[in-house]
């Protein structure tokens, strides 16, 4: 498997990003489609609206968020396999808009893809 990295959507796009995949359910504020330079925006792989709202980027809730999000990902095996195929062929960058670089869905998804 090639490298899977995570990056805030607000950071400038780079050639080294490879396949740029936005993993937020909502479009990030202040970013145009042109600036984003996405290969894909996959709302379906993002946490459910209910889970996103419950988590509310509260660091203390992250362990439970991670557990619940992984349970949601378990139900999306076709998408997970597709993303793993992309990552086998080229570098995959998971993009997110959260301010917290340690506690967000891209961190969970990256670890999930690597472990599977």
Compose a concise summary of this entry.
It is built from 5 helices and 4 strands; from the N terminus they run ββαβαααβα.
Strand-pairing-aware structural class = alpha/beta
Query: Order of helices and strands, N to C?
Result: EEHEHHHEH
Number of domains: 1
Q: Report the portion of residues in β strands.
A: 5-15%
Q: How far is it from the N-terminal to the C-terminal residue, by CA?
A: 11 Å
Number of strands: 4
What are the low-pLDDT stretches, counting only 5+ consecutive residues below 50? none
Shape: globular
Average pLDDT, all residues:
95
Largest sheet: 4 strands, parallel
Strand order in the sheet with the most strands: 1-4-2-3
Question: Count of helices?
Answer: 5
Provide the gyration radius in Å.
Answer: 13 Å
Share of helical residues: 40-55%
InterPro entries: YeaO-like
Protein name: DUF488 domain-containing protein
Pfam families: DUF488-N3i (PF22752)
Task: Walk me through what this model shows.
The protein has 116 residues and is an alpha/beta fold. It has one domain (4-115). 41% of the residues lie in helices and 14% in strands. It is built from 5 helices and 4 strands; from the N terminus they run ββαβαααβα. A 4-stranded parallel β-sheet has the order 1-4-2-3, with helices on one face. The termini are close together.
């Amino acid at each position: 498997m090639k490298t899977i990295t995570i990056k805030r959507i607000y950071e400038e796009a780079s050639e080294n990003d490879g396949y740029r995949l936005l993993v937020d359910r909502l479009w990030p504020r202040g970013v145009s489609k042109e600036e984003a330079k996405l290969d894909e925006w996959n709302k379906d792989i993002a946490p459910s609206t209910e889970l996103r709202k419950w988590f509310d980027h509260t660091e203390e809730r992250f362990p439970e968020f991670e557990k619940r999000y992984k349970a949601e990902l378990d139900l999306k095996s076709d998408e997970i396999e597709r993303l793993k195929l992309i990552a086998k062929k080229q570098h995959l960058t998971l993009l997110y808009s959260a301010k917290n670089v340690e506690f967000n869905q891209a961190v969970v998804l990256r670890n999930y893809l690597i472990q599977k």
